[in-house]
UniProtKB/TrEMBL annotation:
<protein>
    <recommendedName>
        <fullName>GGDEF-domain containing protein</fullName>
    </recommendedName>
</protein>
<feature type="domain" description="EAL">
    <location>
        <begin position="24"/>
        <end position="278"/>
    </location>
</feature>
């Protein structure tokens, strides 16, 4: 039996398939010890607000896993496995608490970082105790709710049961909500109107097309226009070039994030970068 996998490529259910299944099982097994073995770390990527000039506006927390046996494993490989096994709930809560305590520490040191963004998985959103988890993470670190933004992937919002009602409760708590990877799902305007969100994060796949794909440019303009009419803020992710920056600024995008302004970095390196920026 053959499974069609892209153009002219057939993958057979041979030992290779078994091997990839074995690899996933191995990752799953090793990942379950990652927290207790201190193998996880949180990196921070700067977000910039685009006014007459770009000014730092916050940071996104991104988890990193370095295993002694495997080395650095990218989130794209282990997050889906953690979501499948359910371990993402524990992992996600660890990242949330880590990010909140880091922000509190920076603020206690007099560094005025207004907001931290943390990715929330569908599995976390489905947990009855998610509100309590978020509330206690804020409280234990003395953070005002609006200092925390939770990023939820567009497709997830439509897949999860009760996602909207949980998001409403989170929003009532005062935390900010953003739709991550926007444009890759199929949200309609009327659906978007129902969500208690403040921000749309335009997916990197559209930003990549700036300058040579008119379709991507049109989509970006349309998303920004739609966001503006719904009273939502926009963030473009994956901005790597000055040409992309110029296009986004001209199109009215409010914030940007990408290697152009900084890669995700360990907390101390991130802070050096933050302090090196002009204050106005
Ligand atoms: P995301 O939330 O959309 O995060 C943005 C990703 O784009 C990050 O990849 C970041 O390193 C990368 N990126 C940022 N700027 C640029 C750029 O200019 N060019 C390029 N090529 N890439 C850029 P990363 O850290 O590998 O994370 C991938 C995904 O894994 C994230 O996508 C998010 O969906 C997930 N993830 C990461 N950390 C967590 C976490 O703590 N919890 C959950 N649930 N998911 C996480
Ligand atoms: Mg994100
Ligand atoms: Mg994203
Ligand atoms: Mg993305």
């Amino acid at each position: 039996q053959a499974k069609k996998h892209g153009r002219n490529t057939y993958h057979f259910y041979t030992p290779e398939m078994t091997q990839s299944a074995r690899e996933r099982a191995q990752l799953d097994r090793l990942l379950r010890h990652a927290i207790t073995n201190n193998e996880l770390d949180v990196h921070y990527q700067i977000k910039m607000a685009l006014g007459s000039q770009a000014t730092p506006s916050g940071a996104e927390a991104l988890v990193r896993w370095t295993n002694p046996e495997l080395g650095a494993v990218p989130p794209a490989r282990f997050i889906p496995i953690a979501e499948e096994s359910g371990y993402i709930v524990e992992l996600g809560e660890w990242v949330l608490r880590q990010a909140c305590s880091q922000l509190a520490l920076w603020r206690a040191q007099g560094v005025d970082i207004p907001q931290i963004s943390v990715n929330l998985s569908v599995r976390q959103l489905e947990r009855a105790d998610i509100l309590e988890t978020v509330r206690s993470a804020l409280q234990e670190n003395g953070l005002a709710p609006e200092m925390l933004e939770l990023e939820i992937t567009e497709s997830v919002i439509m897949d999860a049961d009760d996602a909207i009602s949980v998001m409403k409760q989170l929003s009532e708590l005062g935390v900010r909500l953003a739709v991550d990877d926007f444009g890759t799902g199929y949200s309609s305007l009327s659906y978007l109107k129902l969500l208690p969100i403040q921000t749309l994060k335009i997916d990197r796949s559209f930003v990549v097309g700036i300058g040579d794909n008119g379709g991507d440019e049109s989509i970006i303009r349309a998303v920004i226009g739609m966001a503006q009419s719904l009273g939502l803020s926009t963030v473009a992710e994956g901005v790597e070039t000055l040409a992309q920056l110029a296009f986004l600024q001209q199109a009215g995008c409010e914030q940007i994030q990408g290697y152009l302004f900084g890669k995700p970095q360990p907390a101390d390196v991130f802070l050096e970068g933050w302090n090196a920026r002009p204050l106005t």
